[in-house]
Design brief:
This protein is α/β, with parallel strands linked by helices. The chain has 18 helices and eight strands. The strands form two sheets. A four-stranded parallel β-sheet has the order 2-1-3-4. A four-stranded parallel β-sheet has the order 6-5-7-8.
Length: 342
Amino acid sequence: MSWIPDVFSTLKTWVFKKKLLKFSSRFRRDTQACFYCPEMCRFACPVSETLRDNSVTPRGKMSILHWMERGETPDKITGSAENALWYLEQCTGCGRCTEYCLHEIDVAGALRKARKDFYSPTLLPTLPSIGRDKNILFCEPGRQNWWRSRANLLTRMNSPEVIEWTGPHKEWLQGKITSQALASWIDSFSDATNLWFESAEVAWFFLETCEELGRPVAKKVRLVWQEFFKDWASKELSATEVFHESYHLSRLLPRVGVSVPMYERGLLPQHSGWNVIDCGGEGFYREAHPEKANALRERFLNDLKSDGRTATTIISQSLCCVEHLAADKQGSVYWLDHLFPS
């Protein structure tokens, strides 16, 4: 009869969320939930915690959207449309607030969509043409020759063609380009056999856009992590090494139906909590506000010290984060290949 407590718990959660926490149908549920919330997620927001500003908490930013739904203009709410855009940009897109939210509100997604009202959709950049029946690996810019020299790794993925990713995921996240504008480009991948992604952030962008557009090409997406996680999971880290995880891998990708097996607790020896970190996604945030992103980086590294972590080496699955964190820790931040010197 051990299933009885589980059924009762599920029923209680459903009643609490769907009945007791029901909002007026006049406005969107997400913005109302944030507007009336006592800011239980504030501690999880790297921007508000770094800037020490109540107006840029997840609730503060979502409240702007709620007031707009009530008919107020950006000028009246924040002083000007430019000021309103500034507030909506104060988000790294990390999804931490959603993780701690009772209502599971996707604040980052709501802010991204709101920014589209302020930006005019831009033209698509020049993108690589994809032939028919291709097995493709999209790598980070400047990483193409590195991958081509790793024949043993490529063989395990059936020797894909290596192409540097030049897609507009940053523009899409900032609201400068609509998903609809990407439709014809995404359709050009329809005949590919596999689409391998080195970057979890880029893979999530591609999958999320495919989901919004209802494009079946998403089924062909593969993560490099999925192919090699068994090898990486067997590597133990020392007490002075920390592993930089990705919120895209551990939280966002599972939301769009991608199983990332090494993030199931117990598969990664180094995934113990103490020596695993997440910088909070300021790699995207720095595209709009580089100076504030530097402050976030400094706060993150100082937090390691204040926690008593004597980290001499940071190993990251994200090349974007390697570049960002290495600005303050030269020579001690590495990508995953650091685990495999040979």
